[in-house]
Structure formats: structure tokens, C-alpha cells
């Protein structure tokens, strides 16, 4: 047996595949298994064995951390409380408005099982959350602005695809250029979510589906689309396959604040991502290492990225980190 | 007595004044005292009482955290080990090459006294260090680039002013525009420190001082100037007062990496600061809160920003942070 961190994945879509790719870049980890609800023979990984989720409990003492790669809308609210009974877990739950409730339901289980359940890991929620916190803690007299895009949102695309009658669909988030420039200038404008972004959906319908019903269902979906200026475009499968097959994303968090009268300080964190799911996966894998280290120290319960000291993310010793990075 | 975090400052220069200003923006903290080696009557604070450092131990049970605002070259290596015997401390020690040695000397004291000594807090070392760590942990297959400026460096200006014969002096760090563009393009160029920056000094001489001797002493100063392309300019006191009286700074940390073949991901963290000492002070004050919370939990020893979970920096409860920021 190696002394690498033993990891397993539940759910092998874009995110699960991203996690498999990311673990290949992290030599202190070993991906032991992919678990799927599908027929294991139908799941093609890079080089990881696939098992049915029905057998997952056979692995409960063979896995240090289980990475839950299901969707936030239907999968994670059920899976995380279930599997946090048996495994240290990491997930990327991204329905911001429901996070307190989700945290509570996961924490109740993880407190009993004495496992760590790290929720909502990725870049937003995730790295952007950390930067929002840094921004307001460092410059209490200030304003924080989060912009997304242009990019494809996994969570929102997932939500679209679950609407009855949708054969294929993607959602792009676009930042408002005018709003960005205003914020960067050091002014502190008052901007609603609608002022900052628009949402653009491209959908392929199933045969006989009702376009206007689907458009209405998407535009009124609470939290996901209802608060935004959303456009819904119906296109052919051919056009979809040609123009909507990559998953770029990005965005930034800006804190503009005053340390004293007239002294303006601007902090900006930004991401330019060729692949959103692969970057989310990369963040998840780094936090998987943190979960492993926190569990070794005897910690347990639900956690978020806000609870993790940066050094826990690294393969390097604290001494090396201080020497090389501080 | 209030139940605010009780803070004191040792050393009231630009940084000490910045800390006093920052604490005014943080309603959960109370600045109880400024301690100085100068005659307390000669030190003009905004509204904080000033005492002689000789009386500092009278306050050892009245202060939760002592912020050490002295210089890295001569003050902190003596002061921090001395005062970590009696106080939880925060400092901004910024001589990167000497950090491991400095950490060890402070840790030896803080382990015995069971106090927390948080070293090297600010933006570099500090927020930039955290972002270098995040960069390599999230994208292990990549390169990190740190650029500074254009801006005035406190530590380097301090070092200049300690050179015999120097009446007044400032040092500006300038990033190379060509190098920045190369990095942002997603290429991973190999750049030495000299390729990325130059250092520019403006100095007013004391009467009878030997300019060429001073120029040589600066250019050959280890760690501070020797590895850089440094220019030294001698100017009049009049020109100095007119053109070199503000302390702007900035810079950025870029991580360019691949999550898989051909998939490039770029993370960028940047600062645009009207006042470098005030921003450093703002970071110090946030980490002062973290020191207080860590001490309450019974932790002790030398620490760095890499050891601090983001939530510890905030005035808000973990519940509120998850709800508002995650």
C-alpha cells in the first residue's frame, strides 16, 4: 500500500472527469475508484476503475476522502448527508441562497459520524468567497463587487437541462462592461445583480416540447434565473454541437475601500479559465488534501473554504512554505 | 471595561500611524496605547495615549495583542523575541530571505511563553504569499510570477535611510511592462528577478557625505539591492519634499498553469494602493483579530498568514460569513 492520500469520486460527469485529471497532477494522491449510478461498464474514465455506487460502503475503510461530483439541485442535498455518515467528503454545492440550510443538514450528520464534510468548494462559492472575506476584513470601509464571465455556468446549465422538454442546453453569464469600469475607477457605485450581469441560455428542444413554457419555466426559476435579466435562445442540435462545446469561464472580485479619508485601496482577484469544470476540480482536489490533514488532526463536522488555513492546501511542509512562499 | 479586543502599538512611524487609522475602522477593537522609544510628549498620535516603551510591561495583562511597528532590519529581530515573552504579537517582518531564521527565533520564545507571535504580516510577505500558495496548490503544473510597483517600498527605503551619510531617501520598485504582458498571454516565460523589476532610489545627502561610497553601499546591499538592477539618484531636499512625499504601491501575483494538456488557467491577484503603509496596517489589524481568536482557543507559538483560516480575520460569525459571503 502506498502512503498517498486515497481518494474516490462519486459521479463521473464533467466535474468528475476534471477531478481525475487534476489528481494526475498531484503526486501525493491516489484515485482509488470512481463510483457511479450508471452501469460501471458504460463509464469510460482515463485509468480509474469504476464501480457501482451500490458497493460504495465496501470501500469505507479504504478511502481517505470521497469527492461528491453530483449536481447541486438534486444530487448533493441527498448524497452528502448520506455519505458523510461513512466518509470524509468534499463537494461543490453552489446554490448560494441555500448554503446555510445545506450546511446545517450536512453538519448534523458529520458531527455524529466524526467525519469532515467540506461543502461548496470551487471558485464561486470557493475562491471568490475567500476573496470577498479578505476584502471586507482588510478594508472594512469599502464595497465588494463580484463579476462573472463571460463564461458558461455549470450549475445553471445543469438546472436548465433538468427542465422537462430540454434536450441540450448551456447558460452563459456576461458581465456588464460599463459596471466593471465604474468599479475599477475607485468610485463605489450601487449596483444590483441585474446591473452587473445578464444570463444567456442556448437550448435544443426535445421533439414536441413547448418552447414558451420552457422559456417561462427557466426565467422564473428561483435563485438561479428569476433575479436576472435572462434571455433564452432555441437552436438546432447541429449549431449547439458546433458552437457550444467548450466550458470557458472567469470573473473577478473587486474590493474598493478607504483606509483613511481620501486614501483609496483596490484589491482585485480574477480568473481566466479555459475550462470551468477542470478549474473547479483543481480547487476541489487541493481542498481534498486539506480535508485529509484536518481529519488527521481529529477535526470533524461540516466545513467551508473559509475555515481552511492556506497551508493545509499544500503538498509542502510549513517550513518549506515559509522559506519559499512567505 | 469594554469587551473589545485591546490592542497596543510599539513604534509610531508611518506603519504605526496606519494601524491607528485602521483600528478606527474596526469597531470591535480598542487601541489602548502607543509605546515609543522617543519621549512620549514628542509623539503626536490622532487620539491614543503615548507611553515610554520602558513602561510597557505594566500593560502586560491589559493588552490582548501588541502590534510591533518597527523596521525589519534592526528593530524586529530584537523586539519580537523580547516582547513575545509577555504579549501576543503581530509584526510585518519583510526581509524574505531571513524569514526562516526569524521565525525560529520568535517561535522559541512564543512556545515557552504560550503566546501567539504572528510574523511577516502585510501584503508581501502577506497577502501575496497566500496567493502564491493558492496558485501552486490549485495549479501544481504551472508557474507563479510576482510583480511589484510602481511603488515605494517601505522596507527598502528604510534600509537606504540607515546608510551612513543619507539624510533622506526613498526607493521605488518598477515592474517590467514587457515581462507582465508575456506572463498574461498564458506563456510561461523564465524570468529572473532582474528581468521583472528595477529599483530606483532618490537620496538627499548629509553635508559632506561621499555620494559614490553611498551609491556603492546601496547597490551591494545583500537581499535588498544586490540582486537587482538598481539606480541611485541624488537630489536636493527641496525636490525630495516636493516629489517624493506619498507612498503609493501595488503589484500582482499571477499563476499560469495547466489543469490538463492544452487547458490553461490563469489566476491573478492585484493591488492598487494609494498608501502602502496604510494598507500594510489594514492587513495587520485584520490579522490582529485572528491572533486574538487563536489565543482564545489556546493556540500558541510563531505563526504566519499561511496558518490562518480566512474566517478568523472577520468581525462576523461563521454563520453570517457562510450566509453572506460563501
Automatic annotation (TrEMBL), chains A, B:
InterPro entries: Diaminopimelate_DH_Ddh, Meso-DAP_DH_C, NAD(P)-bd_dom_sf
EC numbers for this chain: 1.4.1.16
The entry's keywords: Amino-acid biosynthesis, Diaminopimelate biosynthesis, Lysine biosynthesis, NADP, Oxidoreductase
Catalytic activity: meso-2,6-diaminopimelate + NADP(+) + H2O = (S)-2-amino-6-oxoheptanedioate + NH4(+) + NADPH + H(+)
Domain Meso-diaminopimelate D-dehydrogenase C-terminal: 122-275
Gene Ontology molecular function terms on file: diaminopimelate dehydrogenase activity
Pathway terms, separated by semicolons: Amino-acid biosynthesis; L-lysine biosynthesis via DAP pathway; DL-2,6-diaminopimelate from (S)-tetrahydrodipicolinate: step 1/1
NCBIfam families: DAP-DH
Assembly with partners or alone: Homodimer.
Family, per entry: Belongs to the diaminopimelate dehydrogenase family.
Protein name per its UniProtKB record: Meso-diaminopimelate D-dehydrogenase
Organism: Arcobacter porcinus
